[in-house]
Amino acid sequence: MFSGIIEETGTLRASEPTGLIIEAHSILEDVAIKDSVAVDGICLTVTAMGEDWFQVDTMPETLRRTRLGSLQPGDKVNLERSLLANGRMGGHMVQGHIEACAAIRDTRQDGNGLDVIIELPPQLQSYIVPKGFISLNGASLTVVDVWSDHFSVSLIPYTREHTNLGLARPGMLLNIETDIIGRYVAQFLQAGSTTRSPYLPA
User: Alpha carbon of 199 to those of 183, 185, 196: distances in Å?
Assistant: First the structure.
């Protein structure tokens, strides 16, 4: 489980069909082999590490669902260690289970914020709502508006400076994870419209 508060941007050193090697620094202070790390919002297991790098394995499903296949050595990735039970929940509940990958359609400056307009995958239409939570490349953000085929978020200067979302540009791919609570509620309501819950009295 993660919070969507990015701790560090790492650098991709090497990418292969079965794994990644990522350069990192501060997050490695208390990370061990077998620990979970969110890489651009993807929950991955550390399988090897050195003084300034760690390795994770990737499966075909991971590459199909995410933007990892588009990354090149030298690209920046957002990193977050899994939550401690006694830590603050600064963002929202992020599982690290990416549902889709979508492209940025446009960016627009709005005062000190940068509005980012993103394609809306059809299968996620029920789960993305105005002012709701969303995770983009692992960063916990608030949805600003939603239309039939796109939605928007606004990035404050801190987010742009401390995550790879500061590189936002048209065509850039983003990993999307919608709010898990919203997904459960939507699925429950959809199921309830056709099937009576076994927990309700007859």
Answer: 20, 16, 9
